[in-house]
Each structure stands twice: as C-alpha cells, then as structure tokens.
Amino acid sequence: MDLRHLRLVIVLAEELHFGRAADRLNISQPPLSRQIRLIEQELGVQLFHRTRREVLLTDAGQKFVNEARQVLKQFDHATNVAVRADRGEIGQLRIGSVPTQKVLFTKCVRVFAQQFPDVRMEFQTMCSDGQVQALQESRIQVGFFVLPVHSRGLVIEPVMSESTLVGVPETHPLAGKRRIPLQALDGVPLIMLPRSHCSGFYDQIIVSCAEAGFSLRVAHEVTDVIAGLALVEAGLGLALYPASISEYATNGVVFREVTPPLPRTNYALGYRHDDRSTPLRSFLSIAKRVFGQVQVANSTDRLAV
Fold it and tell me: Across the chain, how many H-helices and E-strands are there?
C-alpha cells in the first residue's frame, strides 16, 4: 500500500459515491472499485458498506480515514520542509565576525533575515585568527574577518577595504594635524590588539613602521576595540583602527590619516570549500551583494573627488 491508495480511500470516504470519487480522481469507476477491494483485502478489514443505493464507511473505515489524513498531512509537511531546506529557506547558520564593521555586517544579517526568516542564525564575535580556526574545525560556517590570514582548506573572498587611521585623544598635540606623518608615531605609546587576534594585519603594520625606520612602542594590549577607545580617550596612548571604527568614537577621540598611509584594512568572507549548506550559499550571495554595493559607492566617491 502506498500514499496513492490512501488518497483513493479518503476521496471515496468524502464522496461516498464511486462515480463522483472516480471523477475527482480522474479515473474510471471500475478501476477505483478494484483498488478499494484490493486495499480491504490487504488490510483484512472492510472499510466501506456497499449497496446498490449507497456507500457508507464502517467504523473501521472511519478510523482508517482519520489516520490516513494525518499520514498525508505529515507527508505533505515533510515534502514542504525538504523543498524549503533545499532552497535555503530553513535551517541553521553559524556566523563569526570581527566587531569593527558592525554597520555593514548588520545590514547583511538584516537582509538575510528578511528573505529567510526561518533560518536560525548563531553569532560569535571573534578575532580573525580565531575565526579561521573555528572554520577549519567547523564550529562556524562563515567568517567575516581581516586579511591576510592563513587559510588552509578555506575559500576566502575579499569583500571590502577601508583605510587604517590613528585614534588620537582630542587634547593630544597630534590631534591638530589633518594628516599625521608615520614617523611621528616613533616612540609614541600605542594601544593594539594582541598579535594572536589578527597576526597577518599586525605584521603588516610592524613591517610598515620598520620600513619607516622605527619600531612600534606597544604600551597596552586590548582584546576589545571599545576598551581600546576608552584607553585612547583616557590619554594612555594612540591606537590604529579601520576607518569605520569612527562610528564608535566618543567626543574625546579624533581620527586622523597617516602619511604615507598605513596598510589598508581588508575584509573577507571565509568558509569551508566542502560546506554545501544552502543557507550558507544564500548568505554569501546576499553578503557579496551588500558589500559590492558599498565598493561601487566608494569607487564613485573617489572618482567624484
């Protein structure tokens, strides 16, 4: 017995007339009668009383129809779940992100949630190196981090780039300059994220300063950019930040460009090449579109200048 047989019984139970039931099922009446008899023989139970004038459900038939409806309802639900999962409309997605690009990352998540409201998202704020490890260990499915990273086994897709600025207390002598010479950072106490958080970018900064003839003086290390801003405001040092961090700035901190410029902060999306999750593919498509719009806008701005 298969689902088609259940539908035959249900339709006949609703019509209680072989002719009308056959019309609904788009078959002729004799095959329907034969199928019903075969079903009853297979079950060993009479489902219908038949006379020349009427067709009636037996008690056993009524109970069978009630259960058959539940089976078909559950099957339809299972089919719908499978189709929606295949489209990426339901499921789960584990996402890692650095905290320095909150606005654009929030926009990606908002657009994704609007289009796929039944996908459950889990978020972890993690450093770039930590995200790479989490991706390799399948603890997250997609990461948004700062390049460069050691990305063995991962697909890395750059999505945007922004300048790296110096955060300066507004009372500091350098705050009065529009652009700060890189050499002016020689001997100045700096507040930095630990190298273990973003080793590739950290090393780029060290090399840039070395090429300018000096070594950075790292006075304090923080694992949180907001805490770093608080230390800058307190006058404990300067800090290097991507331009977007100015969204978090208080009145006590100003941001200045450096000349020659420091290495840009380059962001990328990373994921495992063997992760075939449909929600992941849908999220990547939306994220690329969001960041692509930003890149085009930035290019237009630069051309206008």
Answer: 9, 13
**Mind spelling out the 3-state secondary structure of 158-227?**
EEEEECEEEEEECCCHHHHCCEEEHHHHCCCEEEECCHHHCHHHHHHHHHHHHHCCCCCEEEEECCCHHH
pLDDT tens digit string along 192-206?
Answer: 999 988 899 999 999
* Structure letter (DSSP) for residue 252: T
The whole-number pLDDT of residue 135 equals: 95
**How many C-beta atoms surround the C-beta of residue 7 within 10 A?**
14
Confidence of residue 239 (pLDDT cuts 50, 70, 90): very high
3-86: CATH number = 1.10.10.10
The 3-class SS string of 256-286 reads: EEEECCCCCEEEEEEEECCCCCHHHHHHHHH
Mapped onto helix, strand or coil, the DSSP state of residue 21 is helix
The secondary element (H helix, E strand) that includes residue 54 is none
Fold of the domain spanning 90-161+266-304: D-Maltodextrin-Binding Protein; domain 2 (3.40.190)
What residue has token string 């200045």?
256
In three-state secondary structure terms, 242 is strand
Task: Tell me the pTM.
Answer: 0.68
Annotated domain spans of the chain: 3-86, 90-161+266-304, 164-263
Question: What is d(CA 173, CA 161) in angstroms, rounded to the nearest whole number?
Answer: 29
Helix (H) or strand (E) holding 253, with range, is strand 253-259
- Provide the token pair at 193: 């994220």
Q: Do domains 3-86 and 90-161+266-304 have the same CATH topology?
A: no
Kindly report the CATH class assigned to 164-263. alpha beta
Q: Is the pLDDT of residue 297 over 50?
A: no
Question: pLDDT per residue over 41-62, tens digit each?
Answer: 999 999 999 888 889 999 999 9
